[in-house]
Amino acid sequence: MAVTETYELAGHIVDSLLLAKVLDQVLEAGADYRLDQIDIGRTPTDTSRVVIEITADDEVHLDRLAEQLQVHGVNPLAPGDAVTQEATLDGVLPAGFHSTTNLATEVRLDGRWVPVENPEMDCGLVVVEPPEPGGAPVVRTLPMHRVRAGDRIVVGVHGVRVVAPRPTATDASFGFMDSDVSSEKPKGLQLASLADRLRLARERGERTLVVCGPAVIHTGGGPEVARLVRGGWVDVLFAGNGFATHDLESNVMGTSLGVSVTSGAGTEGGHSNHLRVINEVRRHGSIAAAVEAGYVTGGVMYELTRAGVPFVLGGSIRDDGPLPDTMADVVAAADRMRELTAGVGVALMLATTLHAIATGNVLPGAVDTWCIDINQAVVTKLADRGSHQARGIVTDVGPFLRHLADALGA
Amino acid sequence: MAELDWGRTYLMCPPEHFGVLYEINPWMDAEVAVDPDRAREQWEGLRSTLEAAGATVEVVRQTPEVPDMVFTANGGIVNVAADGGPRFVPSHFWHPERQGETEQFATWFAERGWAVDRLDHELRHEGAGDALPFGGVLLSGYRFRSDRAAATQLAELTGAPVRSIELVDERLYHVDITFCPLSDRHALAAPMGWDAYGRRVVEALVPEPLWLTDDEALSFCANSVVVGTTVVMPTTPVRVGRQLEAWGFDVVTCDVGEFLKAGGGCRCLTLALDVPLGPGPRAPSPT
User: Cβ–Cβ of B148/A73 closer than 8 Å?
Assistant: First the structure.
């Protein structure tokens, strides 16, 4: 993994061409630099000082380079430890708390860089004492509402660094999609690339997260997602009340929001179909109970229940019913999503804006995130909200899923 | 061309306990015996040559445990232009064999009323051996005997701008074996001793350098002492002597062969006591 350290070079470094030499040597060594602070003397007598952030491929290369540069007076800038402050109220971070990104982050404690266990954006950082005496302290992200009085929270930016994301060798094969999201991309190639990535995840033991919007059902993609679940390609699924409702409706009544999923025609009294289905599932007490009782005999929710794949249905004010499984407490829903994202390597956002953004908020930036939507603005929105890792495939999700399930042999 | 505004007073150390007793540069060979009488003769010869050229020589005495103290150029950095009287920064030697010299030089200067400034404990710098004034800046070498970071502190202590150049050939381990200021426009310069950046720094600094070939540089001819228009050289390659004379210098070759066995020439045996440092580059005189 790429490592970055900050160094200082001071003196008459401009006329001596020392700065030029040092920067040349950094590049020649295959490393990269960023000048963080540049104070150039006004007169020839004034000394200059620059702070250089150097990034190398790994610790070994950085150490070797640092040793070379030390000869020229380039010294590591002791960044000092991160400052922590005790929270005084439950659910409230100390003022000046360090606000996180979703990128891999390290915190300096007792002169050592400790990686943050679970990168997540818009959280605080809590320092947990080592489980056994003499062990290394643990640093975790902590959403505001989970703060408890007495928690040691990192404040300010000192002693906190973000490890810059670097393309890895395995990314290279997917690199052709690195340009802006566009509808004018060869879909077959994008699909093959995604299928490869899912196979790689399975090989590596990474979990695959699928996030679905109701349009997946409306466009006829429900059976394809069900195939993927059955084939073991889905390890966890996030959606809302709408997706689950229409999935159940289409299997029980053959309609999605009253429209026949086979003929595309409206049905008599179809507008109330989904309400009747929700009502019956509520009578059973849960989706699992409805499956058990034989009320639901197919579809995504059915396959998830049969395969024991965990899912979260996040609630909203718009929800009809809601289904008994829908979590109306959104804070609890977000916490449950956090628990289930552990070990996720790939996330597919299928035809959903709001659930994609909600999921993006709790995902580490290192998770390969693919957004499949007919509206290219969704990918942009996701990136604008901090999930810069998201790649987009602009297409109709229904046919796309069929091809994906075929490609994976699901 | 104008004469150098320093180089009329020198500190020298008679070779009462000189010898090649250890090897800390490629020229030293502990198997080679130094003839103490010849050394003493050569040292006296250099002293009288400098005095004949118009210089004053002061003397510091060495003790047996510091045989290399005869190379007074390495003793420290002199600055007579400082506010509040002359100041001295004693060297921090690279090799433990010479570290005993630091306090002896510091004491000599302190006893004569000089203010003594100190480098940070961990920084090493070998004085005028690795820092020569030219054009209002201090040209300082680093790598073999001096730390680059020490130059930054020297700049703070003396007020002089420092140009640090990296030495790349271990045989030319001090900057005073690669560079010799001759006047406000001229200097002897041995590019083989520096990296590409260092060469560019010297090119920009010296209006009329006499570039030495590798053989000339390795003859130690840059390790010379300049008193006004007299250049006192340990060896004088023919081409170099002609050019110096063409520029109007009197060249005197002074045999210091016993000291070359330890890797030191005329410059190494002298520490100029009248160097004014800072506060910035001075324009050379017009041609």
Answer: yes
